[in-house]
Amino acid sequence: MSTLIKGGTVVTASDTFAADVLIEGEQIVAVGQGLSGNTVIDASGAYVIPGGIDVHTHLDMPFGGTVSSDDFFTGQRAAAFGGTTMHIDFAIQPRGATLRETLDIWHAKARDKAVIDYGFHVAITDLPDSVLEEMPRCIEYGATSMKLFMAYKGALQVDDMTLFRAMQQAAQHRLLIMVHAENGDAIDVLIREAVAAGQLAPRYHALTRPPELEAEATARAVRLAEVAGAPLYVVHLTNAGALEAVRLARARGKAGQIFAETCTQYFFFTRDDLAREGFEGAKWVCSPPFRSPYDQEALWQGVADNSLQVVSTDHCPFWFQGGIEGRPAGKELGRESFAKIPNGCPGIEERMMLLYTYGVRAGRISLNRWVELCCTNPARLFGCYPRKGTLTPGADADVVVWDPEARRILSAATLHQRTDYTLYEGWEITGAPRVVLSRGRVIVEGDTWTGEAGAGRFVHRRPFAP
Ligand code: URP
Ligand code: ZN
Ligand code: ZN
Q1: Which of 69, 154, 189, 241 is deepest in the core (most CB within 10 A)?
Q2: Is the CB of 388 under 6 A from ligand 1?
Q3: Among 157, 178, 236, 291, which residue has the most ligand 1 atoms within 8 Å of its CB, making it the best to mutate?
């Protein structure tokens, strides 16, 4: 059985051209003119792009005294509705666990629920010699990237010795080190001071995590990686100072070693959003926090000039009103103190639409750069290109037929993420998926869901290759 996506404009990271895409079984077999197939999907007036890849998500993650509200079914279905057909989630190592045990916990969460393909990074929180020695086996586990947290003191944070030892090991075995770069020790001091002074409203979350402490940690991680010789990927970079550290490293000849992403929301919100009336600002509490309009401009510049290579979401949703109707606790945990608000925001569904509307249509990035940032570079950097992230014979048929004129008003009521809010309530977008295919199967058609729990597969990723 073959499927022909007919009459569209194919857009990859490098090219834009009129062509049909022929799929047989789970793979693309041809891209060209005059092809024929059994089932035809009409792509006239539409772009045909590789499915989005979101390399930074937290589904079903225990965090901040509760658990993120999307599981692998609801989160992945939402991703698919937004044109994302693969994501890489963080398997967080419980203290004392091996990396194998950690991954097994996350495999069990995903296996029967997955509707799109997925991978895992391991988040290392505890690195005794036995785990250090286990790190190279992550190649065999197919999880070839690992995140270390330089923040969240007393919870996920590791010290520099741990980070540096992990980097040395990664350098030897072509594993990609990812860092959450904020100075957790200094932040801890600022949080304690704020709490002692009775400064408890959500806006103090941003004020106790200043951009300088992200810039400092980013520069430190970059320099440690250079000494260790390890490839480094800085996650959720938010501000001009941190970007400068990455840009400088890449300018001094490390463009094949030092990489960074930002996340959709950092283009659109500032620390003022945390000061919204009452407790509303809690919806915008995530780490690192939102910054300034100046930093937003720096991020747009960074994605345009390739100082930033990827835009992901850091999708880590919590209910605003949790703890009712069977919901796990949510943002209300922090009503008495910002320090107890679970950190994280939803966004897996909105990413491609927002970047298309406010990036491509607004003239900030090209159509091809949009595909590169959201689909192709994630696959290249995380060991699954060209099976994922492009449209070429032999690639998995993860394909999105993108209607560039579709207009929607974003609302929690119509989005599919399992939360009671979206940061973008009432925002208008132009450009949205018309049809989404995962390995050749149509899983989204307009507003209709045709995917199936358990159909998504784990993607065994290759080691890092510059
Ligand atoms: O606030 C955030 N970002 N929550 C998720 C955990 C992390 O730091 O990525
Ligand atoms: Zn983080
Ligand atoms: Zn995250």
Answers
A1: 69
A2: no
A3: 236
Over residues 302-326, the pLDDT tens digits come to: 999 999 999 999 999 999 999 999 9
- Give distance in angstroms: CA of 179 to centre of ligand 3: 10
Give the β-pairing of 441-445 and 428-438: antiparallel
Q: Let me know if residue 388 belongs to a domain.
A: no
Query: Could you read off the pLDDT of 141-188 as tens digits, one per residue?
Result: 999 999 999 999 999 999 999 999 999 999 999 999 999 999 999 999
For residue 289 the two structure tokens come to: 């926090």
All residues at 6 or more sequence positions from 243 whose CB lies less than 8 Å from its CB, including other chains: 237, 260, 298, 299, 302, 307, 308
Atom 5 of ligand 1, residue of closest alpha carbon? 344
316 and 298 housed in the same domain: yes
CA of 35 to the centre of ligand 1 (A): 45
The amino acid present at 161, given as its one-letter code, is: M
The reply to whether 266 and 147 lie within a common domain is yes
- The enclosing domain of 211 has a CATH number of 3.20.20.140
What is the number of domains present in the chain?
2
Q: What are the angstrom distances between the C-alpha of 21 and each of 6, 29, 330, 386, 444?
A: 7, 8, 44, 16, 18
CA of 241 to the centre of ligand 3 (A): 20
Nearest CA to ligand 1 atom 4: 344
Same domain, 71 and 213: yes
Same domain, 275 and 355: yes
104-153 pLDDT per residue, tens: 999 999 999 999 999 999 999 999 999 999 999 999 999 999 999 999 99
Alpha helices in 174-266 (DSSP H): 184-196, 203-207, 211-228, 240-249
Residues 238-283: tens digit of each pLDDT: 999 999 999 999 999 999 999 999 999 999 999 999 999 999 999 9
pTM of this prediction exceeds 0.90: yes
Same domain, 130 and 9: no
Range of the domain at 196: 52-376
Whether residue 92 is found in the same domain as residue 148 = yes
- Residue 347 structure tokens: 């966004």
- Same structural domain, 202 and 349: yes
Residues 21 and 58 in one domain: no
Evaluate if residue 79 carries a pLDDT over 80. Answer: yes
